[in-house]
Amino acid sequence: MEPDRYGPSVQRNALAPGILLAIALVVGTLLIGSEWYETLRFVIAVLALIIGWFAVQAKHWWWVPVFLAIAVAWNPVAPFDLSSQLGLLAHVGAAVVALVAAVLITAPRADADR
Question: Transmembrane residues, as ranges (predicted)?
């Protein structure tokens, strides 16, 4: 069997935003209660929506409600109180979900039909 000299036939568009989202969520646990946390909520919500859009493009529909829920829970317009112990667990759980989705959301490369 000849190796594919053009690389993999799929691309992971959600990988970079997923890693950034996981980092933002973990850093968010340290910044709860500070003035920077509100800014970080914007970043978390936007990255969750970006990953959700990449899931739509890759036809991985089951990820869309997950990232829509993350965007709603961390939105800065109508914020939920995530400073409790359950909120800290939600940060870590959402970070793990972001990393898993970043690896699993794949789309065929546009030039894969060579």
Answer: 14-33, 39-56, 86-107
